[in-house]
Amino acid sequence: MSIGREIRRRAKLAVPPLIFLLVVAYFVWNATQGDRGLRAYASRLEDLKAAQADLARAEGDLATWERRVAGLRPNHLDPDALDERSRAMLNLSDPADVVVPYGQGKRLY
To answer: What's the pTM value of the predicted model, to 2 decimals?
Structure first.
């Protein structure tokens, strides 16, 4: 009987540290693997960098289009922009232009 009591006594002494270790393991796992853990943070940083690159590209496109549209405003008409748009709409070229034909289905850009 004394062996059984000794085993029970040691088991009772081992339970609180074991529970503490399980709780600590749970929080450590969630800190690294959970929805708001370190891996999720790294993934969000990558998404942020991609979104910032998209924003920079969109701002560049916006600036380009704003310059082109500003050149076509009635109060400030840019002759080059007007010439470009008129040639594109009429599908004409200047006699001094050099025209390089390319094959069907092969785009230049």
So the answer is: 0.50
